[in-house]
Amino acid sequence: MLSEYRLKRRVQFYETDAAGIVHFSCFFRYMEEAEHALWREAGLNIHEAGRGIGFPRVATSFEFHRPLRFADEFEVCLRIVGLSRKTIRYSCLLTLDGAKIATGTLVVTCVRYGPNDELASTEIPREIADRFAVASDAARDEPSQPASVEP
Amino acid sequence: MLSEYRLKRRVQFYETDAAGIVHFSCFFRYMEEAEHALWREAGLNIHEAGRGIGFPRVATSFEFHRPLRFADEFEVCLRIVGLSRKTIRYSCLLTLDGAKIATGTLVVTCVRYGPNDELASTEIPREIADRFAVASDAARDEPSQPASVEP
Amino acid sequence: MLSEYRLKRRVQFYETDAAGIVHFSCFFRYMEEAEHALWREAGLNIHEAGRGIGFPRVATSFEFHRPLRFADEFEVCLRIVGLSRKTIRYSCLLTLDGAKIATGTLVVTCVRYGPNDELASTEIPREIADRFAVASDAARDEPSQPASVEP
Amino acid sequence: MLSEYRLKRRVQFYETDAAGIVHFSCFFRYMEEAEHALWREAGLNIHEAGRGIGFPRVATSFEFHRPLRFADEFEVCLRIVGLSRKTIRYSCLLTLDGAKIATGTLVVTCVRYGPNDELASTEIPREIADRFAVASDAARDEPSQPASVEP
To answer: How far is CA D69 from CA A150, B87, D13, D74, in A?
Structure first.
């Protein structure tokens, strides 16, 4: 059972903006890259054509402490901080040479696709849920609102 | 003095993902588009080459209620909900045909660029601060109190 | 029958890069935005869920003459320069205040989606092909003859 | 002296679109990632703040043969096929498990930044040009127009 993934990543030029730093929207892409890498390491594909279920994002946030610039090689540490029947909660810490760059949160929920692409809330299939566990020190690592980690 | 901007926008194809909906990172771009349009309506350019100051993002969030799909024409309503000497706080509501799609928050701070692109916190210049005001019903609209977002 | 579309568009901040100009990959998005707007003006949706056909891109190019910067308001002029049973060819001219910024080409082909998302070449349905025509001065505008692009 | 770079890359979810495949604009980003990796391997940074020169793109193209989908792990092979006093020409081949996905071209030129961000054509500095050479089999590999490889 996995609880955490550490992704090494380099800033690409198209992720920077005219202020010379990574555009803030890209941090959400970095966080999702780490999530998908965590799923792959668990032997899972978060978006499998034809499976009939998906994991849309229901809430996300980032606090930015220092900028990232072109070619910086940073680390994304993603942890599972909450796991309920229908929902997974992650926290995320970006660092560059040990310095804190940004902290993020992400909540995803399991849905079943209906006939007209309607999304209906559903339970996370056991073969998926069984691969993940809440990080043992999740409360300590939740970036900003530890009291609200899912019961 | 301006407090709010309403932006009409259509979903572009490159903003959708393989789940058939707008990728969640794009909502932050929509919110920023509305912010920059608000500044333009106030006669300001948020990123002026050579001015020596900038407005990096320090915190942002979104809650997603319903998906957007290709070609949807939605509305972004951005409001100023906080204005201090160095910081502007916005809240944001995305709607599609009157239905709530997502609610966001954004906090930006004023910095002065140093010799090596160092960022030093500084006060918002008066000629900028004087163009903006907190929305009169900002407390009611703060997304952190979701029950009160919509009238 | 339509042959051309003129799109007014403003450069968004997230489209710029650390060189202070629009990233070259975004020009392809601008060209596609104009294509989809042309289809909408013809009463068509180029990507309709459940229709079973699509229009993948088979070849595209751009030549860049001058940069675009944040907040520039430019024009995209897209023209149909070729129309065969299975293929549509466009040429594209981007201008800023009348100055030539870039010239592009795009070729799309009609495919039918098979059971496993296989793509099989197919004829453009008549109800689509009947809405479009080759621009009368297409030969003159083909970007591969740059001297004749502008009147 | 380097002439070629092979980049392994996985398709990220935000690079797919509602047709279930990688959006065509992302191929240009993949090609540029390989270019920047080639420069890094040569001990160079293509975008160095304060150096006063840059390498804007002047022309680029892609032909698309097969689609890429989420999580595909593909290879980008970038080669230098032309090198003159002011210009570098690359060709690019994307493959997935040995199957040809797409072929691209990219031409970049050296410019000096003037006082108002004006771009003036200039010679590639020797310490950069000396690190690169045209691939010995460049003519053979040029995807579509071998006769036009730079004299």
So the answer is: 34, 42, 9, 10
- Which tokens in the block code for residue A3? 């609880």
Residue in chain B lying closest to A101 (CA): B58
- Give the whole-angstrom CA distance, residue B34 versus residue B19: 26
Place of tokens 């003129």: C6
CB count within 10 Å of CB B8 equals 8
Query: Could you tell me whether strands A87-96 and A73-83 are parallel, antiparallel, or unpaired per DSSP bridges?
Result: antiparallel
Q: Please write the tens of the pLDDT for every residue from C25-55.
A: 999 999 999 999 999 999 999 998 778 999 9
C82 burial (CB, 10 Å; 0-12 / 13-18 / 19+) is: middle
Q: Which amino acid, one-letter code, is at D146? A: P
CATH dotted code for D4-143? 3.10.129.10
Residue among C32, C46, C49 whose CB faces B20 most closely: C49
| Complex prediction ipTM | 0.91
Against a cut of 0.80, is the pTM above it?
yes
Quickly name the fold that domain C4-140 has: Thiol Ester Dehydrase; Chain A (3.10.129)
Query: To 10 degrees, what angle do helices C25-41 and D25-41 make?
Result: 180
CA distance A116 to chain B (A): 12
Topology, domain A4-141: Thiol Ester Dehydrase; Chain A (3.10.129)
Q: What is the pLDDT of residues D69-109, one digit of tens each?
A: 999 999 999 999 999 999 999 999 999 999 999 999 999 99
Least Cα distance to A60 among A105, A23, A90 occurs for A105
Give all strands of the β-sheet with D4-10 in edge-to-edge order: C4-10, C73-83, C87-96, C99-109, C57-64, D57-64, D99-109, D87-96, D73-83, D4-10
Domain ranges of chain C: 4-140
Residue C20 and residue D117: Cβ atoms within 8 Å? yes
Band (pLDDT 50/70/90 cuts) for residue D151 is very low
Distance from CA of B102 to the nearest CA of C (A): 20
| CATH number of the structural domain B4-139 | 3.10.129.10
Long-range pairs for B92-98 at CB < 8 Å and ≥24 separation?
B92/B31, B92/B34, B92/B143, B93/B141, B93/B143, B93/B149, B93/B150, B94/B27, B94/B30, B94/B68, B96/B66, B96/B68, B96/B72
Residue D71 to residue A40, Cβ atoms within 8 A: yes
CA distance D106 to D122: 18
Query: Widest CA span of chain B, in angstroms?
Result: 48
